Amino acid sequence: MANIGDYRKDFDILNSGDYVYFDNAATSQRPNQVLDAISNFYRTANANPLRGLYDWSIAATDMYEDSRRVVADFIGAATPEEIIFTRNTSESLNLVAYSYGLDNVSEGDEVVISVMEHHSNILPWQMVCRKKNAKLVYLEPDEEGVISKEEYESKITDRTKVVAIGHVSNVMGVTNPVKEIVAYAKSKGAIVVVDGAQSTPHMKINVQDLGADFFAFSGHKMLGPMGIGVLYGRKELLENMSPFLTGGEMIEYVTRTDATYAELPHKFEAGTVNASGAVGLAEAIRYLQNVGFEAIEAQEQKLTALLMEGMSKLPYIKIYGSKDPKKHCGIVTFTIDGVHPHDISSVLNDDHVCIRAGHHCAQPLMQFIGEGSTARASLYFYNTEEEVKIFLEKLAKVREVMGYGA
Ligand SMILES: Cc1ncc(COP(=O)(O)O)c(CN[C@@H]2CONC2=O)c1O
Q1: Which of 198, 215, 365 should be mutated for ligand 1, with most atoms under 8 A from CB?
Q2: Which of 52, 66, 219, 261 would you call most buried, defined as having the most Cβ atoms within 10 angstroms of its Cβ?
Q3: Is 369's C-beta closer than 6 angstroms to any atom of ligand 1?
Q4: How much of the chain exceeds pLDDT 70, in percent?
Q5: Dihedral sign, CA of 95, 100, 102, 108?
Q6: Which three-class secondary structure state does DSSP give residue 137?
Q7: Mean pLDDT estimate for the chain
Q8: How do residues 299-358 score in pLDDT, each as one tens digit?
């Protein structure tokens, strides 16, 4: 059994200088195995997949569809046809809103989301409700970001057609009770879309166990390349949905006035697909499975505990979310009295420490917690205790650098 620290050698960027990368919730870094898999595709099987009748195109198609099978197994889909490759979580969530929401939400219906959602899981539903004259209902968490049973049972009703909920908040780090929300939503006749962008990199996902009707995530947050995302959808729902984007690859037959569409999953994959991205994502999945989510979770929880314990010694720092480091998924959002989050990030960057500052595409949540913006450190399994110590040492200097007393 490899030691968790043995994997860091695979990430050249992390070993190329003195940078401390604590912005993994925005995007992760990539191991050489993923970069080599992408390079290998272009060096040995690069052709436009799915339509060509020659060896390279057949090889590219095989690599693309093998990657789909890897993704389906990874998240417990019933069949690979339930896996749609998109560009990212944002596109996946828009696909559901446009192709399912507009056809199934009617005037007077309700769509339930939470105030903690990322804009990618708010704006598509604002669009649906505006176009269909339906009502958008917000679940509100407690101070630690927990959505209570009373809260979701009071707001998910017989008028609810869609519940769209983040699995893990990219600000609070809290894991929502998705399985319970799904069960209750189904008892009310609603379908559930789960935004898995911040959970899939950190924990074992089984979409059938969750009961999700749709599940979205991005390759770039889990060691994969940018530009490849996934939408899982229950086959019987996808089969009855209109295409989202139209054009090449996704048709059976086209006349001057009409067209019939390809079978799943190709109906939802218009144009030349991101075959190399899918191959890179499949390699990222194999890499994560080799590390193991138990080891990933243990390392993240150990580092988050060290981080929060050190930050708690600085009285001018406020941490958002749970006081329990085990309930942060590696995400620690904070403010420093008197210092704008952008200045926190800039001062830390002077010491080669990379964190995120801003609204994190979660402005309704910022309004809910009464902040315009916050700073956020987010860890992954390849970060180290030494990096946490460096972060804490540099963080303790920020106020001084900004002209405040220590
Ligand atoms: C919870 C959540 N949902 C959806 C998205 C959108 O993902 P894509 O950008 O891959 O479509 C993000 C991105 N997270 C942002 C991106 O940068 N920092 C963040 O926290 C997210 O954290």
Answers
A1: 198
A2: 219
A3: no
A4: 99
A5: negative
A6: strand
A7: 97
A8: 999 999 999 999 999 999 999 999 999 999 999 999 999 999 999 999 999 999 999 999
Instruction: Report pLDDT for 215.
Output: 99
CATH code linked to domain 34-289:
3.40.640.10
User: Closest Cα to residue 238, out of 359, 115, 335, 95?
Assistant: 95
Inter-axis angle of helices 385-395 and 341-350, nearest 10: 120
Domain spanning 4-27+293-404, CATH class: alpha beta
pLDDT of residue 406: 55
Which of 24, 125, 170 to mutate to test ligand 1, by most ligand atoms within 8 A of the CB atom?
A: 170
Q: What is the three-class DSSP state of 316?
A: coil
Number of helices (H) and strands (E), helices first, in the chain?
Answer: 15, 15
132-170 in b/e form (b: 16+ CB < 10 A) is bebebbebebeeebbbeeebbeebbeebbbbbbbbbbbb
User: Of ligand 1's atoms, which has the minimum distance to the CA of residue 120?
Assistant: 4
Mutate which of 95, 125, 218 for ligand 1 pocket (most atoms within 8 A of beta carbon): 218
Q: Could you tell me the pTM of the whole model?
A: 0.98
Every domain of the chain and the residues it spans:
4-27+293-404, 34-289
Instruction: Provide mean pLDDT across the span 110-122.
Output: 98
Tell me if domain 4-27+293-404 and domain 34-289 are identical in fold: no
> What are the catalytic residues?
361
Q: Is the CB of 89 under 6 A from ligand 1?
A: yes
Instruction: Decide if pLDDT at 14 tops 60.
Output: yes
**pLDDT single digits (tens) 391-400:** 999 999 999 9
Residue nearest to atom 22 of ligand 1 (CA): 170
How many Å lie between the centroid of ligand 1 and the Cα of residue 26? 6
Confidence (pLDDT) at 5: 87
Question: Edge-to-edge strands of the sheet including 135-139?
Answer: 83-86, 229-233, 214-218, 191-195, 160-166, 110-114, 135-139
CA dihedral 222, 116, 317, 142 (to 10 degrees): -130
3-state secondary structure of 254: strand
| 59 CA distance to ligand 1 middle (Å) | 32
Residue 90 — very low, low, confident or very high, per pLDDT cuts 50/70/90? Answer: very high
**Is this prediction's ipTM beyond 0.95?**
yes
Decide whether any atom of ligand 1 lies within 6 Å of the 176 Cβ: no
Query: What confidence score (pLDDT) does residue 405 get?
Result: 67
